[in-house]
Specification:
Protein name: Molybdate ABC transporter substrate-binding protein
Structural class: alpha/beta
Family: Belongs to the bacterial solute-binding protein ModA family.
Keywords: Metal-binding, Plasmid, Signal
Largest sheet: 9 strands, mixed
Number of helices: 10
Number of domains: 2
Length: 245
């Protein structure tokens, strides 16, 4: 009987032990796959890390309305600045990488043929400029070719949906984040060298720790991961996805 009592006491004690606190990351769609790899090679315990991916604009809206994220990895510096201006950032903003545009086509064609192709019925997809920073880059590029192209473009919610369109094979052209090229097998469509005037189109991608009423351990975990984003191992991995520094 005494043994049973001790076993029950032990079980009760173990049930009362606190579960590890989850550190939640909001990550822009262009960084989803790189983040998965960054977490896998993170030199500290990462069993407590979870993330939600989407367009930077939508994630910003969620955070601004109180969504319980500890770290925001954005595709640009606009949304992080707005959070900082609203007093919702703990510490400094970090530019962890610079992102660039990529152009994909289903057929082996030149970028110069895009306008004529669309006039002949080809379909081009870009991330929505209202929600996705890479959509703004794509919009700038299309307007330089011909303003009429924007009215013909299919607007995906963000980079992830744009990449899904590429994977479907149902569209002819796509302008997306350059990290997308690493997601597809060689020979799946064609990735184009950018015109010289487009190489200057880039995004200062920032990450910030969100100021909220989280436990101290979650705050420290977020700060530690932010430091890791600025480390050499992190930059080496991101370089494989076409990011620059």
């Amino acid at each position: 009987m005494r043994i049973i009592y001790l076993c029950l006491l032990t079980l009760l004690f173990s049930c009362q032990q606190e579960k590890p606190l989850t550190m939640r990351i909001a990550v822009a769609g262009n960084m989803k796959k790189p983040l998965e790899e960054l977490i896998a090679q993170y030199p500290y315990d990462h069993s407590h890390i979870t993330f939600t991916s989407g367009s930077s604009g939508k994630l910003y809206q969620q955070i601004a309305h109180g969504a319980p994220f500890d770290l925001f990895i954005s595709a640009d510096d606009r949304y992080t600045k707005m959070l900082a201006d609203a007093g919702m950032v703990e510490g400094n903003r970090l530019v962890y990488a610079y992102g660039h545009l990529a152009v994909w086509s289903k057929q082996h064609k030149k970028i110069d043929e895009l306008k004529k192709d669309v006039e002949n019925g080809a379909r081009v997809v870009i991330p929505n400029p209202r929600l996705a920073p890479y959509g703004l880059l794509a919009k700038t590029a299309l307007l330089e070719i011909d303003p009429s192209l924007m009215s013909e473009a299919i607007l995906a919610e963000g980079v992830m949906q744009t990449n899904h369109f590429i994977a479907s094979g149902n569209l002819d052209w796509a302008l997306t984040a350059n990290s997308a090229e690493a997601l597809f097998d060689k020979g799946y469509g064609y990735w184009h060298p950018l015109p010289a005037k487009w190489t200057e189109l880039k995004l200062a991608q920032e990450a910030v720790v969100i100021k909220r009423k989280q436990a101290d351990v979650q705050l420290q975990q977020a700060k530690q991961f932010l430091d890791y984003l600025n480390s050499k191992p992190s930059k080496d991995l991101l370089a494989k996805y076409g990011y620059s520094f």
